[in-house]
Structures are given as structure tokens and as C-alpha cells.
């Protein structure tokens, strides 16, 4: 009789464990399905681009981005970004720019900085580097355009604009040219409305000529800046190089983004 009672208890325990494991697996599957549904909200072409560059899920696992920025062969600065909060620290021997989550601060001479504005510059190269993943941010409007010819090749094209009030320059517009075979982004067209606050049909262009694989993600090694005229590349300006790139799941030290006593606020 004792034997049967114990057998029943063991059977009950085994059934409970099986039910617990099944529920846990179900929750994992539901979570994975929920993540897939979130990603599925993007247009099919853009989803293909995200996947070709390593996947949005992989990108979202990363917490810290660091890189040395070069202009042609000259090092410009070192940039560190908290990918969750978008806090940033940009520094070299003559200036330091920080974004603490509320304000952009700086030390050094603001007029000597690229764009002559710490607020404008603090995340400029981050966005050029973090494409196409930053186009998955909230508040972006997607539009698939007709394929276009460029330099003897036909590209798929997507247009990105912002909902009203999103970011510092909600009237900016971006187009990406996507390789039809690899689904990788190759060309970026963009407008700059930060200073005027008004829409413009004047585009700048960045040709992503070299890529590198970092922690499973395909990110730029070189993007070349050109003028854009008549649906073709115009005069070349310079090439941005991204070296010593770090992408990791560990959160950056938050103290680096804090404003020092001698810093000024950029408006």
C-alpha cells in the first residue's frame, strides 16, 4: 500500500514538472512569436534589408557601440553610444561632446566641431553608421518606391520620413538603394533640415563602399560622401571610415555621459 501511495506521488510530481516545462516552453514560443510579429510590421523589403545586415533582433541585443571615426585617412574622434538610451560621448584632443539623455553638452570650442554645433554633430555619424537599423525606430513612415537604375544596375528603393515632432529634424527625408540580390543597402540619399527647419529637395549622398562583420552584424567600414545631382553621384567630398568597432551586449559605464562642471550646453 505504501508502494502505491509513493508511486502516485511520484506520478503527480512528474506530471507537474511536465506541465511546468510545457508552460515555460509555451511562454518562450509566445515570446519568440511576439518578437516576430513586432518585426513583421515592417514592409517586406525593409525586413529583407534588416535580415541581410544581421537581423533586428541581434541588433537589439547590443547595448554598447564604439568606433573611431576617420575622415579619409585622418582620425576625427572616438564615439561611444548607449544603444538603448542613445546617450553618447564623442571626444578627441580638442573637444568632448556628451548627450546625457536630456541635454547635449560640450567642452572645447564649438565652432571647431564638425557642423559647428555639438547638438547637430553628437549623433550624426552614429545614424550614418547604424543604418539600416535606426530606420526601425518608432515614428518612421515607410514607403516602397519603384526600382531605379543607378550606375548600370537596378536597385530596389525605400523612402523613410518621420511623423510630426519625431527627433530634432522631423522634416528630414531618406532614401536607400538596395541590392536586389543580396538585399544589402548600398546607397543613401538624405536631406538636411536641421538648420532651416524647412523641407528641401536637395539631397546629399553616401555610397557604402565597404562593410565589415562585427558580432554577427554587417556594419559600415567606409561610407563615401558625394553631392547628388540628376540621379547620379556628383562631386566627392570625403570618405568616413569606422575603425576599431565594438558592438557588445554589456551596457556602457553611465558616468561617462554625465556633464562635467566646465561644460556648456549646446542649443
Task: Kindly summarize this structure in a few lines.
The protein is of the alpha+beta class and 267 residues long.
Q: What's the helix-strand series?
A: HHHEEEEEHHEEEEEEEE
> Into which percentage range does the β-strand content fall?
35-45%
Which term fits the overall shape?
globular
Strands across the major sheet, in which order? 6-7-8-9-10-11-12-1-2-3-4-5-13
Explain what the structure shows:
By secondary structure, this protein is an alpha+beta fold. The protein is globular. A 13-stranded antiparallel β-sheet has the order 6-7-8-9-10-11-12-1-2-3-4-5-13. The chain contains 5 helices and 13 strands.
Give the SSE map.
Elements: H1 2-39, H2 44-52, H3 56-61, E1 64-71, E2 74-82, E3 88-91, E4 96-99, E5 104-107, H4 118-121, H5 124-130, E6 140-150, E7 153-162, E8 174-179, E9 185-190, E10 204-214, E11 217-229, E12 232-248, E13 264-265
Antiparallel strand pairs: 1-2, 1-12, 2-3, 3-4, 4-5, 5-13, 6-7, 7-8, 8-9, 9-10, 10-11, 11-12
List keywords for this structure.
single chain; 267 residues; alpha+beta; 13-stranded antiparallel β-sheet; 24% helix; globular
Amino acid at each position: 500500500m505504501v508502494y502505491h501511495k509513493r508511486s502516485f506521488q511520484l506520478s503527480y510530481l512528474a506530471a507537474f514538472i511536465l506541465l511546468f516545462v510545457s508552460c515555460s516552453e509555451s511562454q518562450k514560443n509566445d515570446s519568440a512569436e511576439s518578437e516576430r510579429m513586432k518585426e513583421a510590421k515592417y514592409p517586406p523589403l525593409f525586413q529583407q534589408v534588416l535580415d541581410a545586415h544581421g537581423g533586428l533582433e541581434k541588433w537589439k541585443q547590443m547595448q554598447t557601440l564604439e568606433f573611431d571615426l576617420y575622415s579619409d585617412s585622418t582620425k576625427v574622434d572616438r564615439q561611444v553610444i548607449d544603444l538603448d538610451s542613445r546617450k553618447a560621448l564623442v571626444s578627441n584632443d580638442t573637444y568632448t561632446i556628451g548627450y546625457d539623455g536630456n541635454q547635449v553638452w560640450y567642452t572645447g570650442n564649438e565652432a571647431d566641431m564638425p557642423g559647428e554645433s555639438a547638438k547637430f554633430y553628437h549623433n550624426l555619424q552614429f545614424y550614418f553608421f547604424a543604418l539600416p537599423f535606426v530606420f526601425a525606430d518608432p515614428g518612421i513612415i515607410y514607403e516602397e518606391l519603384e526600382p531605379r537604375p543607378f550606375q548600370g544596375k537596378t536597385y530596389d528603393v525605400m523612402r523613410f520620413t518621420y511623423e510630426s515632432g519625431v527627433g530634432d529634424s522631423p522634416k528630414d527625408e531618406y532614401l536607400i538603394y538596395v541590392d536586389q540580390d543580396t538585399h544589402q543597402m548600398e546607397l543613401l540619399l538624405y536631406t538636411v533640415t536641421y538648420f532651416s527647419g524647412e523641407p528641401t529637395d536637395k539631397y546629399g549622398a553616401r555610397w557604402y563602399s565597404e562593410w565589415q562583420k562585427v558580432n554577427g552584424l554587417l556594419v559600415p567600414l567606409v561610407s563615401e560622401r558625394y553631392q547628388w545631382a540628376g540621379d547620379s553621384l556628383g562631386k566627392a567630398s570625403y570618405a568616413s571610415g569606422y575603425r576599431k568597432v565594438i558592438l557588445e551586449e554589456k551596457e556602457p559605464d553611465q558616468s561617462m555621459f554625465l556633464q562635467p562642471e566646465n561644460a556648456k550646453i549646446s542649443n
